[in-house]
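Deliverable D2.4 — example input (structure tokens):
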């Protein structure tokens, strides 16, 4: 079992938290939509096989190539942070931890609450598009079906609303839900909440 710690990265000769926060802050100044992008990235990574950065792996048939992940972005930021940390603290900070820390920092920069992040995650080596397709909830499923998908991960309806709402940080693409607004009959699944 993986054990996370609040001071896992303290053996580095640099302050990992400050390094991540500095790079995120510089990039966020030019692109404030990074908050929503990284919340989405973290969700899409963690919801498949846990927070293991398997979403970052390249190749045919990897999670990155799965349909639901086609709009995930922010990879360049994670790679930039990883490159900087490897230069100063080789083989210590995983991409999985970087995703979690960078997401936390963009949330704080987006006027959300800053929270502590425990580190010590290990990067996954298995990345399959089929697992992403099977695990990530489609935006076209009903609310009731979405609640059921989240239950399989040990999450409740409130968790679902927070995680799906956090994807957007205030905006959503109408194409993902307008059919449920104007369908005949209307989607009655919302009564399942």
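Example output (designed residues):
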């Amino acid at each position: 079992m993986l054990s996370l710690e609040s001071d896992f990265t303290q053996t580095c000769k640099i302050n990992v938290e400050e390094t991540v926060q500095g790079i995120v802050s510089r990039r966020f100044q030019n692109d404030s939509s990074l908050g929503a992008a990284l919340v989405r990235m973290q969700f899409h990574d963690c919801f498949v096989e846990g927070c293991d950065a398997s979403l970052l792996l390249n190749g045919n048939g990897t999670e990155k190539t799965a349909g639901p992940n086609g709009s995930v972005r922010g990879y360049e930021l994670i790679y930039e942070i990883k490159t900087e940390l490897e230069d100063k603290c080789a083989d210590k900070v995983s991409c999985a931890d970087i995703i979690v820390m960078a997401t936390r920092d963009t949330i704080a920069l987006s006027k959300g609450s800053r929270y502590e992040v425990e580190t010590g995650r290990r990067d996954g080596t298995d990345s399959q598009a089929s697992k992403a397709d099977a695990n990530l909830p489609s935006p076209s499923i009903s609310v009731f079906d979405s609640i059921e998908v989240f239950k399989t991960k040990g999450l409740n309806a409130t968790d679902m609303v927070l995680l799906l709402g956090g994807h957007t940080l205030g905006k959503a693409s109408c194409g993902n839900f307008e059919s449920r607004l104007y369908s005949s009959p209307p989607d009655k699944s919302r009564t399942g909440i």
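Residues 8-136 form a domain with the Peroxidase; domain 1 fold (CATH 1.10.520.10).
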